[in-house]
Design goal:
- The chain crosses the membrane at residues 12-31, 43-67, 79-98, 105-124, 136-160, 172-192, 215-233.
- InterPro entries: HATPase_C_sf, HATPase_dom, His_kinase_dom, HisK_dim/P_dom, HisK_dim/P_sf, MHYT_dom, PAC, PAS.
- It is found in: Cell membrane.
- By secondary structure, this protein is an alpha+beta fold.
- The protein has 5 domains: 2-241, no CATH class; 260-364, PAS domain (Beta-Lactamase, 2-Layer Sandwich); 388-482, Beta-Lactamase (2-Layer Sandwich), CATH 3.30.450.20; 493-566, Helix Hairpins (Orthogonal Bundle); 574-716, 2-Layer Sandwich (Heat Shock Protein 90).
- The chain has a 5-stranded antiparallel β-sheet with strand order 5-4-8-7-6, sandwiched between helices. A 5-stranded antiparallel β-sheet has the order 10-9-13-12-11, with helices on both faces.
Length: 719
Amino acid sequence: MGTIIESYSPILIVIAVMLTLMTTYTSLDLFTLLRNSEKNNRFIFLGGISSMGIGIWVMNFLTMLAMDTYSIVGNQIPLTLLSIILGVSFTGIAFYVVTNESFGFVKLLLGSFFMMLAVFSTHVTGMYTLSLGIQYNLIILVPSLLLIYGSFLFSLWVLFSYRNIIHTSNVWLKPISAIIITAAIVEGYFLLTKAAQSFDSASFNANSTQSQEQFVIYLVLFITILITAGLLWSSTLISNRLETSDTYLNDIKFALDESAIVAITDAKGIITYVNDKFIEISKYSREELIGQDHSLLNSGYHPREFFKDLWRTIGTGHVWKGEVKNIDKEGSYYWVDTTIVPFLNKKGKPYQYIAIRNDITKRKEAETQVLDTMKDIQDIKFALDESSIVAITNEKGTIMNVNDNFVQISKYSRDELIGEDHRILNSGYHSKEFFKNLWRTIGQGYVWKGEIRNRAKDGTYYWVDTTIVPFLKENGKPYQYLAIRSDITERKKTEEVLHRQDKLAAVGQLAAGVAHEIRNPLTSMRGYAEFLQLDETDEERQEYLSIIVEEIERVNAIVEEFMLLSKPKEIELGKKNIIPIVRNVISLLEFHAKKHKVQLTFENSMDVMEVNCDEDRVKQVFLNLIKNSIEATPKGGTVTVSIQLENEGVTMKVIDTGVGIPPDKLKKIGEPFYTTKKNGNGLGLMVSFKIIEDHGGKITVESEVQQGTTFTVQLPLES
C-alpha cells in the first residue's frame, strides 16, 4: 500500500486554479444579481450553482490529470457525471440557504457545511473513478475538512453577511470573496489528495493506456471548458443589460435624490440606503443610518395604531401615503410628506420598500399658526356672538351670514335673511342721503359708525349702534363687509324721554315767567271786547268782536296749558274702568268726526279693564289723540280706536287713514310747539306724552305717508 503519486504538472495546476477562479467569480456575480433582482431568478440561481459546481469538479479533474493518473487508468464515465451532479447539488443547497431573505448565522454555518460536502463528495467520486482501492487517513482527513469548512465560512460571511457586498458599493469585496472560495477549493483538493492512500501500487502502474476512454475524458473536459465559457459569457451579457438598466435607474435615482428625501429598506424595515437629503434633514451620518430602522427617528408624536396601520398597508403590497413627524439627531422635530412603495416578489410579498419624502416642516408650522389664529378668531367670534348683533354681507350688501342675536332682534329666520339685503329692515326713518353717505364711506374701504333705526318682522322698531368694517382685496376694493351692532333701543327711548323732559322743563320755565304777564292783559282785552259787543248793533262789527273774543279764548287756552306745564296738577290715581272713559271721549267727538266725514269706530275685547289712573288726565290724552286723528283725515276716512289687555297692561291704539307723517317729521312728534296742523301749537301732544309718562306708560307713533298714522298708548295696570 502507498500514497498517490505526488508528481504534478504545474501547467495543469495553474489552468485548474484559473478556471476555478473564473467559475467562482461568475457564480458570485450571478448570486449578487439574484439578491438584487426579481426577474429571471430561477435562471440566475441555476447558472450560479452550475458555475460553482463545475468549478469544483474542474479543479478535481485537472488535479488528477496533473498527477498523470488518467494516462494509466481506465476512467468510469457514470462516476464522473455523478461527481459533477453532486458538486452542483450541494452547491445549490448551500447557496439556497445563504441567499434566502431571512439570513442568519445558523444558515451561514449550514451553507458552509454544504459547500464542504460539495468539495468532499466531488473528490471522493473522482477518486473512485480510478481503478484503485482508495482509503483516507483520518488524522489528515479531519483537519483538512475543518480547514475547508472554515475557509468557506469566512468567505460566505464576507459575501453575504450584514453590511456586505449587496448593501455597499465596495467593488473589491466580490473578487476577494472569489479568491477566498477558490483558495478553499484548491486547498481542499490538495489536502484531500494528501489524505488519500492506495492499496495496490503495482496495479496502479500495471494498466495500459486506453486511448478511447482518454479521448472521452478530454472531450468532457473540453465540453466543461465550453460550459464555463458560456457561463462567463452569460454573466457578462446579464451584467451589460443590468448596466444599461442601471443607467436608467441611476437617472431616476439622481432625479429623486435632487428633489426628494429617499430611503430604501428591506422587508423588515432595516435601512439599506439613504440619499444625501435624508442625511441632511435627519443630521445622522450614512453609517449611523444603514442597518437601523426608522424607529431611530420616532418623535413619539404618532400613536402605535398609526404605525400599525402603516405596516398593515405596505405589508399587503399597497402604497401608503401620509404625513409623519420625525425627530433628528439634535432633537429638533421636522415633518415629511411620505409615500412608501413596496416592491413585490412573484408571490406578491414585499421584499423591500422605497420611501419618498418631502420636507413640509414650514407648511406644518404655517398650518399650526393658522390653527392658532383660527382658534383666536373662533374665540373672538364667540365673544361677538354672545355680546353683539353680527352680520356678514358680500360687496353688494347681500347678507351671507347672521348670528343668533341678529335673528332674535329682527324676528326673521336665518333662511329669510340670507340672500336679502338690509332693506328688509328699513324702517323709513333715515333719509336716502344717510344711506348714500354710509355706502360711500365703506365703498372706499373706510369703517362706518352710526346709529340706525330698523324695523323687525312684526313691525316693531329697534335702534342699533352700528360699526361696518370692510374687508379689502389686494387692490383695495371691498369684497365683503362685517357689521357689528349693539341694541340701543332702550337707550334711545331714555334719551327721547330725557329730551322731551328737557324741552318740557324749558317750556315750564317759559310758562312760569310769561304766563302771568300774558293772562292779565288777556282778561282786560276780553272784558272790553265783550262790553263793546253789548252796545254794538252793526252785524259786521259784531262779527269782528266775536272773532276777537274767540282768539282771546284760544290764547287763554294756550296760557292754561303753559300753566299746566309750569305747575302740573298732582295726579289722583284710582281704580277706573278704562272702557267707559274711552266711550265717553268718543261720544264727545262723534259730531266732530261727522263734520270731517270720518267714520269713528271703537273695538274692545273686554267690557271691564280696570287701570290705576287719573280719569281726567287720561281722558284729556284720549281726547287729544282722537281729535288729532280726525283732523289728520281731511278728505274723510276712518278712525279706529281699539283697546286690549296685553302683558299686564292695557294697550290703546288710535288708527287713522289720513295723510300720514313723513319720516323726517315723525321723530319730532311730541316736541313743544311742533305740529303738523295749520292751526296747532304742538302743546297738546307734548302734554299727552307727559301725562302718560307720569302714569308709567308710553306713547309710540307709527306712520306711512298717504297710508295713515297709528298712536299706541301703553298703560300699566298698576301705576
